[in-house]
Amino acid sequence: MELGTGLTQFLIEQQRKYPSATGDFTSLLSEIATAAKVLSREVNKAGLIDILGFHGKLNVHGEAVQKLDQFANDTFIKVLRHTGHLIGIASEEMEEPYQIPDAYPKGKYVFLMDPLDGSSNIDVNISIGSIFAIYRRKSVGAHATTEDFLQKGRDQVCAGYIIYGSSTMMVYTTGFGVHGFTLDPGIGEFLLSHENIRIPSRGSIYSINEGNEFIWGNGVGQYIKQVKKEGKTARYVGSLVADFHRNLLKGGIFLYPADAKNKNGKLRLLYEASPLAFIVEQAQGKGSDGRQMILDIAPDKLHQRVPLIIGSKEDVEEANGYLSS
Ligand code: AHM
Ligand code: MG
């Protein structure tokens, strides 16, 4: 499709291509885009916090203002709960899932999110992001149950992320390729900028927190030595979405392995690893925990952590060789 096509038009055209499509995602993704625009605006104002007294203090109107990650969480809930497509929402920011209240029509999907990832980077003006996943519910009752959320990544019907960077971008897949849209702030619309993204099968970038070298688990150190010999270059933002996005477009590997401090890795399976693994596989890349594919892991806890090795296919396969030995 022509670059510059608006997100809504793109979604409608995609929907026409697949006669079985119900239009649920057209409406859900449009609402996700609305939340993204609100958050993009707020993230851009973050530098004014101290001047205007935001976040936990009183703002100029004398109202208490929330922290940005809490604000992001509530914004997604507010824009998504009325759509009629969801039965529940789980979030890295909430201990328990949010049930769609009886006041709203209920739907057949659950939504999982990390509403604002890398939030420690907000104060220093570095890119941050939101990550989301959508699954079909399994239960049939009036409320979402735990089993609706604890599904294998392979069963996702949609996943995506928004990066609030030098520009704001939304990248998503519904299982038919990965597409990227850049927010044109002048007109407030997401415009098609990256159609059918494919990650190179090998990259020249590796991304890992090398400060953890002395606590890394088996094989990680040897693998990193190897990539240095190969002449790969190190890039690590410390914002998962930013590191992932760069490697998706340029080719590369991101690792957050298990270590002595984080026995199961640091990142969350349901809110971070699974959606990004679904996206990367759609873009011909791979995501693993060092042994098995992220998408094949059956979760047993909502906030479960997992080691994450993700990016260019051949790089991830090579890393797995070291990590599983
Ligand atoms: P958060 O969910 O608390 O924001 O933490 C997740 C972030 C990721 O964005 C990033 O990849 C990782 O933590 C960085 O961790 P570290 O600072 O240990 O390298
Ligand atoms: Mg996070």
Characterise the protein shown here:
With 325 residues, this protein is an alpha+beta fold. It folds into 2 domains: 7-194, Fructose-1,6-Bisphosphatase, subunit A, domain 1 (Fructose-1,6-Bisphosphatase, Chain A, domain 1), CATH 3.30.540.10; 205-323, 3-Layer(aba) Sandwich (D-Maltodextrin-Binding Protein, domain 2). 31% of the residues lie in helices and 23% in strands. The chain has 9 helices and 15 strands. The protein has helices spanning 7-17, 24-45, 49-52, 68-80, 146-149, 220-229, 240-250, 269-282, 313-323; strands spanning 86-91, 98-99, 109-117, 128-136, 156-164, 168-173, 178-184, 189-194, 205-207, 233-234, 253-256, 267-268, 286-288, 305-306, 308-311. β1 (86-91) and β2 form a beta hairpin. The longest helix is centred in the first third of the chain and has 22 residues, at 24-45. The mean pLDDT is 93. It binds 2,5-anhydro-1,6-di-O-phosphono-D-mannitol (AHM) and magnesium ion. Magnesium ion binds next to β3.
What is the CATH class name of the largest domain?
A: Alpha Beta
- Our measurement of the CA-to-CA distance between the termini, rounded to an integer number of angstroms, reads 45 Å
Heteromolecules bound = 2,5-anhydro-1,6-di-O-phosphono-D-mannitol, magnesium ion
With helices defined by DSSP (H or I, 4 residues minimum), what is the helix count? 9
Strand content: 15-25%
Structural class: alpha+beta
CATH topology of the largest domain: Fructose-1,6-Bisphosphatase, Chain A, domain 1
Helical fraction equals 25-40%
CATH superfamily of the largest domain: Fructose-1,6-Bisphosphatase, subunit A, domain 1
CATH architecture of the largest domain: 2-Layer Sandwich
Shape: globular
Cα radius of gyration in angstroms: 19 Å
Average pLDDT taken over every residue: 93
Low-confidence parts, pLDDT < 50 over ≥5 residues?
none
Largest sheet: 8 strands, mixed
Strand order of the largest sheet: 2-1-3-4-5-6-7-8
Question: What is the string of helix and strand elements?
Answer: HHHHEEEEHEEEEEHEHEEHEEEH
β-strand number: 15
Count of separate structural domains: 2
